[in-house]
Design goal:
Helices cover about 40% and strands about 15% of the residues. With about 325 residues, it is an alpha/beta fold. Strand 5 (about 95-100), helix 4 and strand 6 form a beta-alpha-beta unit. Helix 3 (about 75-90) runs parallel beside helix 4 (about 105-110).
């Protein structure tokens, strides 16, 4: 039997993040915290000791749920949670609503399950008018790649449309920690996808969690998916109770504001979308800087770049101001 194939590929940032010959690239293409916890080395030491055993995280899941004050299911990052949404909710012919210019994995998983995909305007009010009975609605908040955040009052029309039609809203909150005063809407028809590894600057460690229908996610997730490194990381997050985020996020917000002032851009998250035209990605690469080409978002001629360390941000600002 031949596997089910489909013509849909995707591209993400982070392809170049180290040395190539004698040139050192600064990687602005991945939107992660440029700082890392001081307890990073302790994670890998503990992971090595736990590696000979199968990893069960039931007790940690309970402790994290008490800190967040929600019933939750741990997953190997938000992306695994998106694929579990496919297992739980998507079927051949399911109606899926996806806003224009957003994270490509929503469309990817929907195509895998043969869903009927409707592309929508990227605002909650217009999307709300397109929701029909038993729809699955994807919404990224703040959105990737433009960094726009919609507070609960702006999301209210979409949430009410989902409730009225007995649909489900998949609210991807992967970048919520980077938004000042982030607030999430409440509804029994919402599934929230969250992740730690972006906000802790360690995307190679795949740990996230789901709020909403948590028991159903626990039934279908893959056993041992986060492994010993993920377990050791989660153990320290629980112990730290998000202290690392409280310490580093103000530094990122300060730099974000500086980039906004210098380049005339606006974002609620830790990354910016900028229209530059052709050739910019290659030009910046020749200057030792890697940014995200946004063609895969349906935005050719645009780049996305993240907030990094102050001296790195200064270099990017200077290059962009002098060349564009």
């Amino acid at each position: 039997m031949k596997p089910y194939l489909f013509d849909f590929t995707t591209e993400h940032g982070g392809r170049i993040n180290s040395k190539s010959g004698t040139d050192t690239f600064i990687d602005f293409s991945v939107s992660v915290n440029p700082y890392q916890p001081e307890w990073k080395d302790e994670i890998f030491s503990k992971a090595a000791k736990r590696a000979p055993d199968y990893v069960y995280w039931d007790s940690l899941e309970k402790e994290l749920g008490e800190i967040v004050d929600e019933d939750l299911a741990i997953t190997a990052g938000a992306t695994e949670a998106i694929y579990l949404v496919g297992v739980l909710l998507l079927r051949l012919g399911s109606r899926v609503l996806i806003p224009e210019h957003t994270y490509s994995e929503y469309e990817r998983i929907s195509r895998m399950f043969g869903c009927e995909i409707t592309k929508c305007p990227g605002n909650p009010e217009d999307m709300a008018e397109m929701v029909e009975k038993d729809s699955v609605v994807f919404f990224c908040n703040p959105n990737n790649p433009d960094g726009k955040y919609f507070p609960p009052d702006r999301l209210k029309p979409l949430v009410e449309a989902v409730e009225d039609t007995e649909s489900i809203l998949i609210l991807d909150e992967a970048f919520m920690d980077f938004v000042q005063n982030y607030r999430s809407p409440e509804s029994e028809r919402i599934i929230r996808l969250r992740t730690f590894t972006k906000s802790y600057g360690m995307p190679g460690i795949r740990v996230g969690y789901v709020i909403g229908f948590a028991e159903e996610f626990r039934k279908v997730r893959m056993p041992w998916s986060i492994g010993s490194a993920g377990y050791a990381f989660l153990e320290k997050v629980v112990e730290d109770e998000f202290g690392f985020l409280r310490k580093t996020m103000p530094k990122i917000w300060k730099e974000k504001n500086r980039i906004e002032r210098n380049l005339g851009l606006k974002s609620d998250a830790n990354f910016f979308l900028m229209k530059t035209g052709k050739g910019t990605v290659d030009y910046l690469k020749s200057r030792g800087i890697v940014v995200r080409d946004c063609t895969s978002f349906g935005l050719p001629g645009y780049i996305r770049f993240s907030v990094r360390m102050p001296e790195e941000n200064s270099k990017l600002i200077d290059i962009l101001k002098s060349s564009l």
